[in-house]
């Protein structure tokens, strides 16, 4: 079976198969880690041949990147939907903080994929390029919300980039602790992070 190279719109069956492979990849990375997630393991988990996997994705890097993109897009959409429904910039910042915690609480396997492939820089050569994991860029959307709040006169004067990094770092550390100690109450942690954020931004 040769890899799919044409640019035609994939059929319903092809889209379903690609999604199945992405789901298998997410599950394996989250339980075994990136290094142990081979194309052969993905094929076995999906119940198809390795050649069939290569019909849809030309390499492990391409498939795992598709899985990471899938996770990040859904994470981003979840948080953005909550931010977009916020009545003002202050509420938008707090909705962003709460949304990031809630998504990760409910999608632990997605958190593992992000940790394995992005935060720990284990996910293929393209993610090991110096500067590829730009922490400041990760939190730019939050920084933009902080700027909007300052312009609306809701927040005190501060460096939005620095405060975004501080809030983001707090979220990352809480979630990292939860991954190792799952008895941590993430809902209570979200309450504390909201209060932390209020104290950092309010006049």
Would you kindly provide a written description of the structure presented here, covering whatever features stand out?
The chain has 203 residues and is mainly α. It has one domain (12-201): Tetracycline Repressor, domain 2. 71% of the residues lie in helices and 0% in strands. Helix 1 crosses helix 2, helix 4 packs across helix 5 (89-106) and helix 9 packs antiparallel against helix 10. The longest helix is centred in the middle third of the chain and has 25 residues, at 60-84. It is elongated, with a radius of gyration of 19 Å. Residues 121-133 have low confidence and may be disordered. Keywords: DNA-binding, Transcription, Transcription regulation. GO terms for molecular function: DNA-binding transcription factor activity; transcription cis-regulatory region binding. Residues 15-75 form the HTH tetR-type domain. It holds the Pfam family TetR_N.
Give a summary of the structure in a few sentences.
The protein has 203 residues and is mainly α. The protein has helices spanning 12-32, 39-46, 50-56, 60-84, 89-106, 108-119, 135-138, 140-151, 160-180, 186-201. It has a single domain, classed as Tetracycline Repressor, domain 2, CATH 1.10.357.10.
Question: CATH superfamily name?
Answer: Tetracycline Repressor, domain 2
Q: Give the helix level as a range of percent.
A: over 70%
Mean pLDDT: 89
Query: The CATH topology is what?
Result: Tetracycline Repressor, domain 2
Helix and strand succession?
Answer: HHHHHHHHHH
- The CATH C-level name is Mainly Alpha
Euclidean distance between termini CA atoms: 63 Å
Structural class estimated from helices and strands: mainly alpha
- Give the biggest sheet: none
Number of strands: 0
Strand content: under 5%
Low-confidence stretches: 121-133
Number of domains: 1
Alpha carbon gyration radius: 19 Å
Specify the CATH architecture.
Orthogonal Bundle
**Count of discrete alpha- or pi-helical segments spanning 4 or more residues:** 10
Shape estimate: elongated
Domain HTH tetR-type: 15-75
GO molecular function, one term: DNA-binding transcription factor activity
Protein name: TetR/AcrR family transcriptional regulator
Pfam families: TetR_N (PF00440)
């Amino acid at each position: 079976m040769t890899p799919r190279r044409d640019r035609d719109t994939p059929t319903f069956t092809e889209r379903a198969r690609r999604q199945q492979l992405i789901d298998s990849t997410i599950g394996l990375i989250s339980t075994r880690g990136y290094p142990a997630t081979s194309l052969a393991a993905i094929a076995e988990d999906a119940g198809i041949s390795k050649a069939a996997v290569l019909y849809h994705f030309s390499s492990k890097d391409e498939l795992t990147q598709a899985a990471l993109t899938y996770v990040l897009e859904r994470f981003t959409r979840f948080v953005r939907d909550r931010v977009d429904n916020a009545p003002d910039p202050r509420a938008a910042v707090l909705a962003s903080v709460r949304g990031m915690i809630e998504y990760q609480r409910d999608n632990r396997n997605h958190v593992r994929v992000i940790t394995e492939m992005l935060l720990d820089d284990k996910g293929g050569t393209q993610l090991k390029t110096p500067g590829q994991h730009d922490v400041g860029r990760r939190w730019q959307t939050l920084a933009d919300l902080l700027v909007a709040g300052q312009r609306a006169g809701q927040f005190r004067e501060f460096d939005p980039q620095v405060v975004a990094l501080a809030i983001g770092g707090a979220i990352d550390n809480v979630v990292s602790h939860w991954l190792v100690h799952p008895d941590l109450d993430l809902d209570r942690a979200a309450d504390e992070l909201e209060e932390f954020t209020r104290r950092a931004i309010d006049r």
